[in-house]
Amino acid sequence: MKTLRASSMDLLFKCAGSLHNTEAVRVDEENEAAEIGTEVHALLAKRVSRWPFGPSALSGDSDDVRFLYEAGTRWWAAHGETIPDAVVETALSWQMTSGEIITGHPDVLSMTLKDDGWDIAVVDWKTTRLFDVSYHHQMMCYLWLSTFRAITADKPFAKFTYIVVYLRDIDPDTKLPNYELVNVPPDMEVDWAARFITKVLLWDGVYRPGKHCTYCPIHIDCPARTKALAEGVNALVGRADTLPDDPARIVAAYKTMQTVEKAVKDLRAAIRQHIEDHGPIQGDGFDIVLQETQGTDVIDPQKAWPVMNGLLTDDEVAKCVTVQKNAFLGMVASKTPHGKKQAARGAAMGLLRDAGAVGNKQQKARLTLIRTGVEDE
Ligand code: SF4
């Protein structure tokens, strides 16, 4: 029996190959970003449900977790009152007559029965650094699943709303995270369910590789992606310094390059892991081994300080050291009581600026792919 999660809906609407190809090797990659996301969601769940915990609950967390949690807390303080009777991490599920089980855990769910019918809202916290990714089908799935909890004989669904909060995307004026609020017309969840059945459950058997493959559980073993990669690499080879005239072909080559870069990174990590677990790989007259490299000397700054001062002038010592801004400000914050850390960081930066210690190093502009049109689902 297949179980489908709401969080995989946007991928499945783009290509349902991973649902139907049960032969391919599946991977579920753990990464630091996912761990941070889990931690932030757990903290915000406590905040929304008014779990009694004090500032010390955050004391051991990283700057990143704290930043994201505080952004979510500010958003909830500004908008939480518009979301009545909020409950967190509610387990929603429904079994299709064809056997598949659809599950979802919206971060915040609000269901209120008013005179004109049910008013349902879901809120989802996003800790991603990508702000142009669509979560429409995940949110629609939550709304659709929630209707099964709200059914009463004579009450219609009056209002559906979903809100996606991008915790890293802070508005410089309000200091609140930006968010997307969508009012979904009643009955649209029925249309959505029909499209879900047609596009996902009754998949037409056509694989649709693209940028989304990165997030697909079978991306390492998918025949269509492997073919697309091979074609892309063939198209790139020999053209590295002569771009085609057609801009659309340059964009296509750029996308292929991104996919290939990710595939190479994954392959390198997989080979390294294999050698660590099983030893060198031998074949075709070659061995792939992990070769020890000679370490570089690391100098302990505290012990080096008096030695350097004995040999060099202050100006000369200054040319040998760099100050790590985040480490310095983090150290200042660690000596400051909770609630005043941000101000202490700002004050320390102000002192550095007053002393003329802050310069600006221009970074080389980064190549970036920005979506300007509407992509097909
Ligand atoms: S890797 Fe890409 S093409 Fe293959 S099933 Fe997944 S989404 Fe579809």
Architecture overview:
Helix 5 (136-150) links the parallel strand 6 and strand 7. The protein has three domains: 3-201, Lambda Exonuclease, Chain A; 222-283, no CATH class; 301-354, no CATH class. The model has no long low-confidence stretch (mean pLDDT 86). It starts with a strand and ends in a 23-residue tail after the last helix. The protein is globular and about 85 Å long. The strands form three sheets. The protein has a five-stranded mixed sheet. Strands 1-4-3 form a three-stranded mixed sheet, with helices on one face. It is of the alpha+beta class. It contains twelve helices and ten strands. It has helices at residues 9-14, 17-20, 32-48, 63-79, 136-150, 188-201, 223-236, 247-278, 301-311, 314-320, 325-334, 341-354, and strands at 3-5, 87-88, 92-95, 101-104, 108-114, 117-126, 157-170, 177-184, 281-283, 286-288. The structure holds iron/sulfur cluster (SF4).
Which fold name is given in CATH as the topology of the largest domain?
Lambda Exonuclease, Chain A
Portion in helices: 40-55%
Task: Give the helices and strands as they follow along the chain.
Answer: EHHHHEEEEEHEEHHHEEHHHH
- Can you list the strand order of the major beta sheet? 2-5-6-7-8
CATH architecture of the largest domain, by name, is Alpha-Beta Complex
Number of helices: 12
Primary descriptors:
377 residues; alpha+beta; Lambda Exonuclease, Chain A; five-stranded mixed β-sheet; three-stranded mixed β-sheet; 12 helices; 15% strand; binds iron/sulfur cluster
